[in-house]
Task: structure prediction
Amino acid sequence: MKIIKTLLPIFILATSASYTQAANSDWIFCTVTDDYHSAVYFTKVFHGEYDLLEQYENDFFQHVKTKYGGDMDESISCSFEAKKAATIDEFSEQLADSEEFYDKVITTAWAR
Result:
């Protein structure tokens, strides 16, 4: 019984910390669209903070520019949902749409 009394507060603290993190975060993916080269770059779907979307956009753009190089006529955006399944659905829809309109659609391993 003494072990339960000792472990219970630790369990409650760990559970509430993960709940707080989940309550303040979303499932996110970002894209960089380069119309000049007819290319779209996608991140992976990742767990992140809504308040950091602009930072994710800038960081992913820098990643694309560094890895794939060149002058880009870019448009950068991130999409988000509270539930992973909804984000994956949106990701899949945008990926399919991009494959219809762009010559190069590149999914990267980038995630925050």
Summary: The chain has a mean pLDDT of 84. The beta strands are 26-34, 39-42, 46-48, 74-81, 104-107. The helical segments are 2-23, 53-68, 84-101.
